[in-house]
Amino acid sequence: MLRTMLSIRLFEQRVKQLYRAGEIVGAIHLYIGEEAIATGVSEALRRDDYVFSTHRGHGHLIAKGGDLKRMMAELMGKATGCSRGCGGSMHMFDPSIGFMGGNGIVGGGIPLALGAAFSAQYRGADSVAVAYFGDGGMYQGVLHESLNLAAKWKLPFIAVCENNRYAATTPVAKSAASHDFSTYAAPHGIPGVRVDGNDCLAVHKAAKQAVARARAGQGATLLDCETYRVEPHCGIIPDDRPQEERDEWGRIENDPIERSRRRLKITQPQFAKLRAEIESGLDEAVEFARQSPMPKIGSCDA
Fold this sequence. Notes:
The chain is an alpha/beta fold. The chain has 10 helices and 7 strands.
């Protein structure tokens, strides 16, 4: 899990560099600071479980086992990308590993995941479906409609709120009466679990229990994972969050990767070796993307 989190972090840092250099264009939403959530959840999933992502989905795909070369190619708009260069940052897909794509609509992946959960139940499969969304998605009516159906039909559905305290630039304090989103599960009669989203093992434990419950036919779970995104909402707007807040969350003790490194007693030389291995793979991914052809005109229409 430490390797996965570090892979996400380094991938996103490389994407940021390439974006600033003009090799990646369009909107990008980086996952830096939230790596423990996708990693902890995905560690509890199987290849045939479904994941529905968001506009901030690079980390979700990497944690589910996405190919870094095809991801980088997609970000550069190349034909070898995981969406043939037609989707870009917010619309990556890899159904072969159960990754059912990102979504630019706030909360848009929630009902899609509900459909996958219904499909699994209808077919007699024991797969589960995970919907990721941010705290802005907690205010969408479709979330509660989906939780209601998931509860009524005991669907294998797991709703994961990546509560990074901001819906784009709007803080939770200005948009929610209650900051404990796990309580939103109670009216639907399903478990709601609030977890430290920067603690990979805590996320994994909660996700593992939710997955076991879903596979056993006991229905849905809502996870409220508290975290903080290090980067601005996206690459084209300034970061106007309070500096003292950013400094507090930026402390090394709050970093999900550093917390895991210390827990595992990984030495700095060992960590540097791991980092170098991942960086080497990213070098190959970038070169693969650069050398890949652009999509042919009309290839994205099919």
